[in-house]
Structure formats: C-alpha cells, structure tokens
Amino acid sequence: MHPWYFQKTEASKDDKERIRRSYLAEVAQLDAGMSRLFRELDRKKLWENTLVIFLSDHGESLLEHENYVGHAALLSQET
Prior knowledge:
- The chain has 79 residues and is mostly helical.
- The protein is built from one helix and three strands, in the order βαββ.
- 39% of the residues lie in helices and 9% in strands.
- It has a three-stranded antiparallel β-sheet with strand order 1-3-2.
- The longest helix has 31 residues, at 13-43.
C-alpha cells in the first residue's frame, strides 16, 4: 500500500470542511445518476422486472478519527 493512501495528517478546519463538501458532492452526484436510471427504467416499463443491488465497502476516512485520511487501514465503530 502506498504511504500516501492512508496517513495521519494535520488538517485545518477549512481543509476538513473542503473534504467533507467534496465527499457530499460525490454522494449527491451518485444520487442524481441513480434517480435518472430509475426514472428511465420506469419509463421503459422495465422497473417491475429489475433487481437493483447496492454494494458498498466500509467507506472513506475523512479526518473524522484521529485526523486519518484514506481508505484501507482504519475501521471504527460508529455509534
């Protein structure tokens, strides 16, 4: 694993907010794309015979736990 892929970092409050906003924009973009897909399936009368499966991993660490940023090495129990 590359050392930059998951590392502890010092980030300013502005950096943390920028990262959070970027991640939320990605989620919003995915949501909009899925909405278009679902509408198109419905329009073509394919919705009733379609199975949609969502898969996900553990997600990103966005400086929420001890200022770590990355994807692979830190799992935290959320409450």
